[in-house]
Amino acid sequence: MKSKKNNMLVGIYLLAVLFAADGSSFAGPAGINLIPMKQTMPLVNLESLDSEFFPASKMVSVKGSLKNISGSYLRGFITIFLMSQNGVVLSAFDMPVNDHRPFSDGEKISFDTAVNVSNVSGASRVSVEFTKD
C-alpha cells in the first residue's frame, strides 16, 4: 500500500473550475487565484499553496511551501494531482522537493512548477501529496 511507503496526503483542494465541462473552452479569466484549505500532516506542514490557471496558454502554475515537522531530516518529492469535482484523478505529475536534497526539522522549503493541461478536461481541484524517500 502506497501509504506504507511514507506517502502523506496533504489533502489540499483548490476549489475553482479550471476547465469547461467539455474541455473545448476554459472557464474564468487568465490568472485565476485559487484558495487552498490548509491541513497538517505528520511529517510536513503545508505552509502555503497557490495555484493559477492561464487559459490562453493552457497552463496551471502550482506554488507552495512545506515545513518539516518530523523531528529529523526529510528528502522526497510531491505529486500534484489534477482532479474532477468528484475527486477523480485526471492527471498527476511528480516534482522533487528542495532539488531532492534533505531538509532539516523546522526548515521551510518552497516548490514552484507549471504544467501544460491542454490534454486535461473537467479539472476543478488540485491535491498535493508528499512522499518521503
Separate helix tally: 0
N→C terminal distance:
15 Å
Overall tally of structural domains? 1
| Main pleated sheet | 4 strands, antiparallel
Task: Count all strands and give the number.
Answer: 8
Q: H/E element string?
A: EEEEEEEE
Structural class: mainly beta
Low-confidence stretches: 1-30, 32-40
Instruction: Give, in spatial order, the strands making up the sheet with the most strands.
Output: 1-8-5-6
- What's the CATH first level? Mainly Beta
CATH topology: Immunoglobulin-like
Shape: elongated
Percentage of residues in strands = over 45%
Radius of gyration: 15 Å
General description of the model:
- The protein is mainly beta and 133 residues long.
- The chain has strands at residues 7-9, 32-34, 44-54, 59-68, 76-83, 89-96, 108-116, 125-132.
- The chain has one domain (2-132): Immunoglobulin-like, CATH 2.60.40.
- The chain has a four-stranded antiparallel beta sheet, with no helix packed on it.
- It is elongated and about 40 Å long.
